[in-house]
Design brief:
globular; 215 residues; alpha/beta; 7 strands; single chain; 5-stranded mixed β-sheet; 7 helices; two-stranded antiparallel ribbon
Amino acid sequence: MLQLQIYVNRFTDRINLAVAKTLRSSAEINWVSPLAATGYAEYRDKSFLTALGLERHTPELADFWPGRGPCWDGLGLISEGFGPEPLLVEAKSYPQEGYSTMAAKSSESVRRIEEALDVTAVWLGLNERPPSWTHGRYQVANRLAHLYFLREVVGVEAHVIFAFFVRDPTHISTELREWERATEIMWVELGMSDPPDHTGVVYLDGVRHNPNQGI
C-alpha cells in the first residue's frame, strides 16, 4: 500500500506519533514492513510470524487458520513492557476498500475460518457474529481474528491498527469527515460501537509519491 510505504520509510516519526497516541503509548516502533530495504515486502501466514520473531508459533497458526491468510500492509514491534509487542497494520486510501467477502471454497477451510471468527466474536463480547463478518466486512474480521490468535492462543501482547489516509493524492481522495463517518459505520456493521481493545484507528494526511526518493 503506497501511502503506508511512504510513511514508514520517509515519515516514520509522524506515523509513530499517530500510532502511539491512539494506543496511548510512548514506546518506540521498530518497523519490519513495508521497508525499502526489503523491496516493500508484505507478509502473511508463516512469513508474518517470522518477520515478527514469532516463527515458533507457526504450528498453532496452521491449526487456527488455513493458508493464504491476511497479507499485512505493515508490521512492527513496539518496545513496551517485558518485550517487543507486535503491531499489525491494515491501511486504506478510501472507504470502499474496506469491503470484502470470504473467498475460501473448500469446506474444511470455511469451517476453520468460521470457527476462528466465532471464538473471536465471543472474545470481543458479541452475543452473536453478524453476517458481515464473512460477507461485507470479512477483511476487518479476519484481522481481528488474528489479533485474537496472537493474544489468546499464543499469549502475545499484540495490537492492530487501521490506518486511513485522508485526501490521498495518489488514489481516490477521501475527506476526514467522510473517513470518520465510514469508520463509525464499519464498527456498527461489525456489531460494535467502538474499536475493540488492543486496536485503534489513525487518520493520516495523504502525501505525494516522490520517485526521486524511491517511493
